[in-house]
Write a structure and sequence with these properties.
The longest helix has 46 residues. α8 packs parallel to α9, α9 crosses α10 and α10 packs antiparallel against α11. This protein has a seven-stranded mixed sheet with strand order 3-2-1-4-6-5-7, sandwiched between helices. The two termini are 23 Å apart. The radius of gyration is 25 Å and the shape is elongated. It is built from eleven helices and seven strands. It has two domains: 229 residues, Spore Coat Polysaccharide Biosynthesis Protein SpsA, Chain A (Alpha-Beta Complex), CATH 3.90.550; 81 residues. The chain is an alpha/beta fold and 316 residues long.
């Protein structure tokens, strides 16, 4: 297999780092990426930090952007919009991801002709890289997304990713916080873009660096984002299941009323009869809503695919 190092050197590579209160580690992260990707431009988006993150990043040689709206997704959106490159390396500014793996991730993107490579997190032996509940949450969310949208991802919450220009410039970001990783994964799978994973080392935060991820608050937000994405991309499934539930419950309630009518010729349980009728109407309305929204969803998906293909043509 031919080496792709010359190809990497010829590419415009941008390392993009969304940061909030990372003054303890951001300079080390910038130096690490500068060492392993010497030809890359390094951008830091200061997400309304209350410390000296921006000053430390600028002193370390990064190009600093600002985003005053709190939330990782807002910072990523600012970077996606403002930075122009052929390849984008997304990482965090907390020194947990392995910068030395970046050339390998970029090589995988090129050789496999992918639009996104996810650096799956392999904890460094002997270190406490995950807080209690995070491993289970990651497993649960990954399993849900795989069952609904396909793909073979094993770590959908990893923040270490490499993207093509076509992916970055064609993705509309709707999330606001740490649910950005889920949205990027679903966007790639739903639009049929080629993606892959590559194992990378994942380290614990160094002393003085504090995680901004809230186990329950952000876990709830990620779960809510998954529900919204299911409704957006699989509306017929959602409303179809609702239609079946309403229909089955309605028929179950109506059946004894119907039997009584056959025996006596009278409808003696009007409230139950009206309730079953209402549930039957809800079942029909749910199915019709699902069909209408499915048509709209398909049109939106076609527009996203056209935007992606348009960016692909521009990148050639």
């Amino acid at each position: 297999m031919m080496s792709t190092q010359p190809e990497i050197s010829a590419l415009r590579i941008a390392v993009i780092l969304p940061c909030y209160n990372e003054e303890a580690t951001i300079a080390q992260v910038i130096k690490a990426f500068a060492q392993h990707l010497p030809h890359a431009d390094i951008y830091v988006c200061d997400n309304a930090s209350q410390d000296k993150t921006a000053e430390q990043a600028s002193a370390a040689g990064a190009i600093v952007l600002s985003e005053h709206k709190q939330g990782k997704a807002n910072a990523v959106n600012r970077l996606f919009s403002a930075v122009d490159a052929d390849v984008y390396v997304l990482s965090d500014g907390d020194l947990t991801y392995d910068a030395s793996a970046a050339p390998q991730l970029i090589t995988a993107l090129i050789e496999n002709k992918c639009e996104m490579i996810v650096g799956t997190r392999t904890p460094v032996s002997g270190q406490k890289t995950y807080r209690p509940g995070h491993s289970f949450g990651n497993f649960a969310f990954t399993t849900i997304l795989r069952s609904l949208f396909g793909g073979n991802f094993s770590d959908v919450l990893s923040g270490y990713r490499v993207f093509s220009r076509a992916f970055v410039k064609s993705m509309p970001i709707m999330s606001r916080g740490f649910d950005i990783e889920v949205e990027m994964t679903v966007h790639a799978l739903a639009t049929g873009q080629p993606v892959a994973e590559l194992s990378t080392a994942y380290s614990e935060r160094p002393e003085g660096s504090v995680s901004k991820l809230s186990t329950f608050k952000d876990g709830f937000r990620i779960g809510l984002r998954i529900i919204r994405l299911i409704v957006d991309f699989r509306p017929l499934t959602v409303f179809g299941v609702a239609a079946i539930i309403f229909g089955v419950v309605g028929l179950s309630l109506f059946y004894p009323v119907w039997l009584a009518y056959l025996d006596t010729g009278l409808v003696s349980r009007f409230p139950t009869a009206f309730l079953s009728l209402g549930l039957g109407l809800l079942s029909i309305l749910s199915l019709l809503s699902g069909l209408i929204l499915d048509g709209i969803s398909r049109q939106r998906l076609e527009m996203k695919k056209l935007a992606y293909l348009s960016q692909m043509l521009k990148s050639r």
